[in-house]
Amino acid sequence: MRLLFLTPGTGSYYCGVCMRDNALVRQLRLMGHDAVLLPLYLPLTLEEESASPNAPVFFGGLNVYLQQKFAWFRTAPAWLDRWIDHPRLLGLLGRFSGMTQGPEIGALTLSMLQGEEGGQRREVDKLVDWLATGERPDAVWLSTGLLVGVARRIREELGVPVLCSLQGEDSFLDGLPEPWRTYCWEEAGRRCLELSALVAPSRFFADLMEGRLGLARGTVRVISNGISLEGYAVAPVRPPFPVVGYLARLSAGKGLGTVVEAFVELRKRGRVPGVRLRCVGTSIPSDVPYVEEQKQKLRQAGLEAEAEFFANVTREEKISFLQGFSLLSVPASYGEAFGLYLIEAMACGVPVVQPRTAAFTEVVEATGGGTLVGDPSPLALALAWEELLLDSVRHRRLAEAGRTAVLQKFSVEQMASRFLELAAGVVSEAGG
Fold it and tell me: Check: CATH 3.40.30.10 for 2-228+412-429?
């Protein structure tokens, strides 16, 4: 099959969705399929080799912004259009990604969801024209529901089905100011009705988005995320002291502050001698002040030397950190759609301790690789860590169960096979 995946690039930091899509496309190519990953907005920042290194960037971030800000720019001359989409300029722009906010981002999000009816119609036309000049794909896959604005024109001009993955759209849309929040949810719901298939990485998130988008129950299918297991292994020797690990964006939403406060509680209790904290993950400039606040909490508790923070590490560094963790805990405060970091930890034989919320319950119960905490408070989390760290038999049992489950159910090969099965069915129904 010839499959085209559209995914938003970040330009400067690692994104879980981008890495999932890149691993998926690489695996599909290994399986003999003609799969292409096409970045939108900014170049992709990946922790492994790009599946489509020479692919052009569409909906260049600066172009999208200027066409929203200035109506006259929507008819700017072609030479200016090409200059603004130059890869070097987009790469530079990536350093400032994540800085647009407030009403401005609300209006821009709505415009993008409106597709050919929005302010970026020229960008939609450029993408469709590019697709029409090459070999027609059998299907087009959108990596996020925030891209549904392009689906109608692709379907009309190319006559191919458009599928879409859902993951994390709710937290983004709910963060928009009114009235844009309401407008965007309504437009996204209308546009999703036009898609050939919708997919979520967990039943929790499928049910959630069906309700938020006004879709019939059962509309959104579930295909769990998977990872390339290359390099993931249990460390032959564990560190001489226990390590509580955190692997996610270094931000409030992922629960970094809760982890720091729980670590302080754990150390106060004194039942796990020498335990340390390591926090690893993506960080953008706006995260830095928050991370400094967490370091200040540790300084005030006299624990600054017992905690370390590492931002924007490579894939190899990430695996090395995971192998040095005694447990992983990422108590995200919003409705996490999956939590790729959970299966990454389990692949290294590291048990997880998570709140009994969102998709965490689903993933932990499906793997047996961790424990769930009903009370999300720092003290309750600290007690759960303590219990696991002091019970070596249970720790070993959870570690072995989690790794076995990831190998059997959450590999990129498993994910790719399920994506192919769905795509083939949709293409067949469409008469392709």
Answer: no
Distances (CA, A) of 249 to 14, 178, 295: 9, 26, 16
Find tokens 């560094």 and name the residue: 317
What CATH number labels 243-409?
3.40.50.2000
Q: Would 2-228+412-429 and 243-409 be classified into the same CATH topology?
A: yes
* Cα distance between residue 400 and residue 409, in whole Å: 14
What are residue 347's DSSP bridge partners? none
Record the tokens describing residue 39, joined without a space: 């970045």
Residue 124 and residue 58: Cα distance in Å, rounded? 9
How far is C-alpha 382 from the geometric centre of its chain's CA atoms?
Answer: 27
SS3 350: coil
Q: Is the dihedral of CA 142, 312, 223, 166 positive or negative?
A: negative
What is the pLDDT tens value at each position of the chain, 432 positions in all? 999 999 987 665 667 788 889 999 999 999 999 999 999 888 777 677 877 788 888 887 677 777 777 776 777 777 676 666 656 555 555 454 544 455 688 999 999 999 999 999 999 999 999 999 988 999 999 999 999 999 999 999 999 999 999 999 999 999 999 999 999 999 999 999 999 999 999 999 999 999 999 999 999 999 999 999 999 999 988 888 999 999 999 999 999 999 999 999 999 999 999 999 999 999 988 999 999 999 999 999 999 999 999 999 999 999 999 999 999 999 998 899 999 999 999 999 999 999 999 999 999 999 999 999 999 899 999 999 999 999 999 999 999 999 999 999 999 999 999 999 999 999 999 875
Secondary element (H or E) of residue 355: strand 352-355
Tell me the pTM: 0.91
Q: Which two tokens stand for residue 232?
A: 């993931």
**How crowded is residue 117: how many other Cβ atoms within 10 Å of its Cβ?**
12
What residues does each domain of the chain span? 2-228+412-429, 243-409
Count the neighbouring beta carbons within 10 Å of the beta carbon of residue 267.
21
Supply 197's token pair.
Answer: 């298939």
